[in-house]
Predict the 3D structure of the following.
Amino acid sequence: MGNDQEKSTILVVDDTPENIDVMNGILKPEYKVKVALNGEKALKIAGSDKPPDMILLDIMMPGMDGYEVCRRLKGAEETSHIPIIFVSGAEDSESREAGLALGAVDYLTKPIDPAQMKEKIETHLG
């Protein structure tokens, strides 16, 4: 189990445990997964001395929504480089465009399509 060093770390930010379980199940075999149930925790993890390589960020959360989390991450020098993929139940183009305008690299809709999710992650992790 010494290959954890080579695995990329993905931070999953979602206020719904069921969504976290689904994404965790898809990601665990190939990535290290960190979890935040709200925006404040996400900012703390992203700004830590071991920031994630990518963030999967829910938009609709109580308190600080995903747009605000993205705004803050992109506005801070130490976290501005982390690719963010928004994850949302909303399929409208306005939500997608708003997220991309804030600096997100991509957008996934719920329910999650595992193959599509892995493909987008691989694309943006390089």
